[in-house]
Structure prediction request, 553 residues.
Amino acid sequence: MKIPPYFEFTSPPRLLAGEGALDHLPYELKALGCQKPLLLRDPGLSVTTLPSLLDRILEEGQIVPAAVFTDLPADAPMSRVMAVAASYRASGCDGLVAVGGGSVLDTAKAAMLVISSGATSFAGVEGFHAFHGAVIPFVLIPTTAGTGSEATTVSVVSHDEKNIKMELVTPRMLPQTAILDPRCTVSLPPKITAATGIDALTHSLEALTGKQANPLSRVHALAAIELVHAHLETVLLNPGDKAARQAMALAAYLAGVSFSNSMVGAVHSLGHGLGAVCHLPHGITMELLLLPVLRHNRPAIEADLKDLAALWSPDLPESERPDFLDSLASFLEAVRKYAKLPATLSEAGVTREQLPAVVERAWMDGSLLTNPVELSKADLLELLEGAF
Amino acid sequence: MKTMVAAVVLKFLGAGILVLQRKDSRMQEELTAYAPGSALQIRAWDGGPVLCLAKSASGAWTAGSLSRPLGSEVVEVVFKSPRSAILALLGLQSVSAAFLENRVTVRGDLMVTLPLVRAVNLAEAHLFPRWWTKPIGTLPPRRLTLMGTWFGALAQLFSPQERSP
Ligand SMILES: [Fe+2]
Prediction:
């Protein structure tokens, strides 16, 4: 295993994992010195039983939220982050709990930084490793199994006017506690289950093969890749399987730890470009680009591909193991079939005329720096053409 | 001593970037990512010497050693320690590698940081001999010779246009 001459690793937050983990939320909040949290809840959860379950748990634990904030659009902009912070201050809260998908957790992380720093504008917390100081009690509860936002030092928030994303990266943004309870993800529809699961797989594969990989991120990435392989098809075939749901939530968490410490690569550069230009869901862009980019990266990642082949076919002798990228192609094909996902960019509604604009966006994306091989604009266009 | 070395190298780096901005389309392309009124600052360490590259309203670039206060139009890269700064500024480690190893912090918009990294890589590829630099990937091919860039940078440093923004 290659050890970089210098690397940094931020340990993941305290984790409560398993059915019933959510019931320990009041205990965790009290342990953190929080009695009057602001509860930030994904508006999409209103059609599920999760809000009433959460209310019951908090009531039993004698925790009364000082404010409940649900007014969040998908991909909330900076102004919503500032609104959460204003509500927190106005209600005299003493901690922040967020329950929701990746975008809601990212909004919570940015709001937590604004609140902790006392910043009066979003610009005050923008940057990479630029935040100093103490933070408020902070607990994250994901309701999808994909972004792993509860375990990452990254938050992405939309700009209010421009069609761009603002990124914050700091190890101080991790929650003190993350809670993975299968009751939070069991009702996810197949398309979102598949797309977010492939996002987690992409996080771990890009973290494992990228230029910033280190021995610790590698361990987390391999564990995530093994879990996705073993459980994603199961949750698609049997959505109520709580053990498989929990395994996928854990995979997303582990993948989050790995990419938070080793970054992602060109799948994400292009995926972010496709998201901005063509408004495709993030997980779908990962599903469409993962294989073409890994094939392009192949000359630089042969050793990793051998390890991955052993991970996915542990019972076969080395000489009989299928090539990892062939196994991955079959795996993605099966996931597409179960969840009815598009197989090409054109099937996803992208037009050829949009591709140059996607390349321009991808060219500005920091993930290009960590991709195992350097890519030119022509390479990026060729990759998109290949996936078209 | 470290402060003096860092200040001198930052001056040359700024001059090199301005020379290439006039003569190399790749540098021009990287710098078009920034709106008029933007400033890109490379600070050797917290409280250390700084290079401030500023784009005027007319689109002209200047390089100086006085920093601007942080704001929405300013991106500032700061090395976490003098050791990390000296390694990168002397070309013993590429600025890409410094980013990959989290040796820097960035204050401001991260979405426009990559063109700055590529611009500094390009400048360092022109300012240092090949045998000296330790790139993380391949170094961008030179379009100006080492000597040509140095003469251009020296002329830039002693020209009346070199001023603090
Ligand atoms: Fe992702």
